[in-house]
Amino acid sequence: MNPKTFFGELKRRNVYKVAIAYAVVAWLLMQIATQVFPFLEIPNWAIRLVIMLIAIGFPIALVIAWAFELTPEGLKRTESADELPKRSARSHAWIYVVIIAGAISVGIFFLGRYTSSKQSAKTPEQSIAVLPFENASNEPNTEYLSEGISEALINSLSELQQLRVIARPTVFRYKPKDVDPRQVGRELGVAAVLTGKVRQMQDALKVQVDLVDAVTGAQIWGAGYDRKITDLVAIKQAIVQEVTAKLKLKLSSEEQRRLVKRDSTNAEAYQFYLRGRYFWNKRTSDGIKQAIEHFQQSIERDPNFALGYVGLADSYIALTFYNFAAPHETMPKAKESAIKALALDNTLAEAHVSLAHILMNYDWNWPAAETEFKRSIELRPDYATAHEWYAIHYLTATGRLKEAVQEMKKALELEPASLVMNTFMGATLYYAGRYDEAIDQCRRTIEMDPNFAVAHWHLGLAYEEKQALDAATEEFKKAISLSGGSPLMRAALSRAYAQSQKKPGANEMLDKLNELSKQQYVSPYEVATIYIALGNNEQAFQLLEEAYAEHSFHLVYLNVSPQFKSVRSDPRFQDLVQRLGLSR
Q1: 73 HSE (CA, 13 A, CB side)
Q2: Nearest-angstrom CA–CA distance, 354 and 349
Q3: Which residue has better confidence, 45 or 479?
Q4: Contact 264, 142 (CB under 8 A)
Q5: Domain count across the chain
Q6: 198 and 97 assigned to the same domain
Q7: Residues 274 and 353 in one domain
Q8: Is 69 contained in some domain?
Q9: 83 falls in which pLDDT band (50, 70, 90)?
Q10: Structural contact between residues 196 and 150, judged by C-beta atoms closer than 8 angstroms
Q11: Could you give the angle at which helices 469-483 and 487-499 cross, rounded to 10 degrees?
């Protein structure tokens, strides 16, 4: 039988119609199996069995369609359209049907196995994303509760090393979107998604939570809590216990102890802590100052609440990090708070990484700082912030640039959708001298959120080193606008003007910074970089000495920052590097 005759016979014997009908019914059966079976708690092997039977049945259905037809008299063998003398040639046609059907069937079977194994690789069974809880009260002053409960659940579940938990910066990008848990599962590579609603009515608190299978969309567990606001800690702990049970996690006695120890037994202290974190996450000068007030209220009500002291330490660090306050005004207080937190609970990874930050950026105690960074990572290997700070702060500043890039990649793997992790991946590449890669990384970050000022700033820095000064200028202008006029970014723009031979623009920006310094803190380190770009090294070194005296934040990058390449051979520069403990 020639191919033309064979395909004609396929059409005449309704093999095509049977194949299409079979495919439609098979698709419906697979949808029912994947959607309904998990809800009825039917094991996963049953779904695989359905798929296997569908694959086996496909060639059988095609062979039957070829050989038989349904008539008013019943099922009869299909007669050939050709004359009987040609029957012997056609008698082997069924072999073609079996071969084609078998090939398709095997393809379906192995495609299913490949897709299944690929999906399993992407979505480990013990992984979860806690989406931002909805504020059902519709009152802005209760927003701290919905955000706070979500963040508290993330932090508590992150204590469990057998469970991969997506970090806050990544999941909070879904706020206030109404997203399908299956979409979240695909995008974040998790097996389960926790959603919730919070409603506060005076002293009453209603919390509704749902744990959803991120692959099928079926509900694994759900519950409603109708309690008093004073039962907030108990509600959070109950949710954690239910989630761990439904995900079939076996907790060690140490993990159980740590989960309880994180929380305050004082309801008011815990509420003030949540308010503090809410304002801290705004990353504005006013927000951080309000956070400090709330954290102080928290530890006044419960002097043994370690997380309250961590929040206080992080707030003082943030004031210096974002150039809202001079280091000598905040960092000693930050150190005192971090040490107090560790005295109360030395298993808090957050406290160890906060102390490491202070020991490095303010005390310049490099060995002690690295010990604290490593201890934080040891306690919580999936704590992305610990990997990030160790990479961009310690390893970069000490010139261990290859290690810094690798460590930052670990942080990015843990939080692939985080703007912060993506931006500081670009910053790490920038300090490593890999400017083209830094530009690509920062561009990808800006595609994620065009309004993220820090990404524009780092992109401008990379352009600056590529001598693409017009592009750098545009990025710095965007960063200034989006940040509300950050001194860091104003200094960068002034420096770009100076390198572009636009000295009037550079001097104008410099004058504005000097005027601004009379009203708020402006780091002498940042201003020093402008004078170097203008060729005024004497003024630059005078400012660097001021930066040394006050322990300016970015001073630790002196030995790796390309902004100082023109003065590296100056004995004053070498002396400063020596005093910082950064000589190589």
Answers
A1: 4
A2: 9
A3: 479
A4: no
A5: 5
A6: no
A7: yes
A8: yes
A9: very low
A10: yes
A11: 160
The amino acid occupying position 349 is A
The Cα 259–Cα 343 span in angstroms is: 17
Same domain membership, residue 250 and residue 142: yes
Per residue in 230-264, pLDDT (tens digit) is 899 899 999 999 999 999 988 888 888 777 777 88
Average pLDDT over residues 358-368: 97
The domain of 37 spans 3-122
Identify the helix (H) or strand (E) that includes residue 123. Answer: none
Same domain, 373 and 496: no
pLDDT surpasses 70 at 108? no
Residue 560 included in any domain: yes
Nearest by Cα to 464 from 481, 439, 443, 437: 439
pLDDT, one tens digit per residue, over 424-471 is 999 999 999 999 999 999 999 999 999 999 999 999 999 999 999 999
Tokens of 115: 């897709």
Query: 3-state secondary structure string, 23-60?
Result: HHHHHHHHHHHHHHHHHCCCCHHHHHHHHHHHHHHHHH
pTM of the model: 0.74
Q: Is 142 exposed, middle or buried (0-12, 13-18, 19+ CB in 10 A)?
A: middle
Where residue 133 falls (left for φ over 0; alpha for ψ -120 to 50; beta otherwise) is beta
Q: Are residues 465 and 491 in the same domain?
A: no
Rounded to whole angstroms, the Cα distance separating 326 from 552 reads: 8
Written as six digits, the tokens of 23 are 């495919």
Tell whether 201 and 134 lie within a shared domain.
Answer: yes
